[in-house]
Amino acid sequence: MLIDGVFSGGGLKNFALVGAFQALEEKGFRFHRLAGTSAGAILACFIAAGYTSKEIEEMLDNQDFQTLLDPRKTILPLPFLKWFFLYWRLGLYEGKALENWFIEKLAVKGVYTFGDLPDGKLKLIASDLTNGKMLVLPDDLALYGISAETFPLARALRMSCGIPFFFEPVKLNVKMGESIVVDGGVLSNFPMWLFDEPNGERKRPLLGLKISRGHKETPTHKINNGLNLFEALFSTMQNAHDEKYISRKHEKDIIFIPVNETSTTQFDLSQEMKAALMEEGRTRTLQFLNTWTPTSHRKNYQTVYR
Fold first, then answer.
1. What pLDDT, in 10s, does the model give residues 108-129?
2. What are the catalytic residues?
3. Is there a contact between 40 and 208 (Cβ–Cβ < 8 Å)?
4. CA distance linking residue 10 with residue 18, whole number of Å
5. What is the pLDDT of residues 247-292, one digit of tens each?
6. For the stretch 270-282, what's the b/e string if a residue is b when 16 or more beta carbons lie within 10 angstroms of its beta carbon?
7. For residue 121, which phi and psi values (nearest 5 degrees)?
């Protein structure tokens, strides 16, 4: 069955979404259009490029994610210098290693730019801090005088998953000036609204896959230091917008996958933790599919405020 899919952000927690994708693929579901934010954007992009769940699982299993963290080199290896770079470069890590990894993996499928995908196949969310607005890629590139056909997908992914202060932001240089672009989760971590139609009708069923502590639970944060404060701040920004407004039509079409013990920026996940996350996603998805009735229209809905 052809469906449209939306993937939430969640950093390394999104191994759970790979397990969910595996279960959906086994049950005969295929994605016609995909959308995502941050780590969800990465999975959506790989699927759009033609990767199967098995290929993605093997790719991630064989990857040492700590090699994607690339602090700027200095001839003076002093610990405080990383905070110096944070101040002047706006991030602890350059992000070039991450972007190069995207380029390498997408090239395997012969995909380099948005022009290599069918029109409307993929939509990603990023945040333009300079102009204070959300970016829907590739749609909004035209506002910057940039051709979507030739814009690198790896750069778009880098924009969508650029965790503030963790990775250096992407600087989008255009005629109107320079725009600082960071993680889409700052403004919309779960963009289910992207595929809404004005008349309430859909061309095909829509399914959302969301990393969550449970759709009726509000996570709490222990804040004992500056790093805890940042993680709590970013987590709140990620979820406040989308959790506040979820309509009943959306709620019925969302697989909520609770993940409690993994940090968004935990790049040293063990094989056991990866496997556990995937199994959780797979199990939750199979449970959901037992009662889900796919439909291409849901009219007369009301908003749920959590």
1. 999 999 999 999 999 999 999 9
2. 38, 183
3. no
4. 12
5. 666 788 999 998 866 665 566 678 888 888 999 999 999 999 999 9
6. eeeebebbbebbb
7. -65, -40
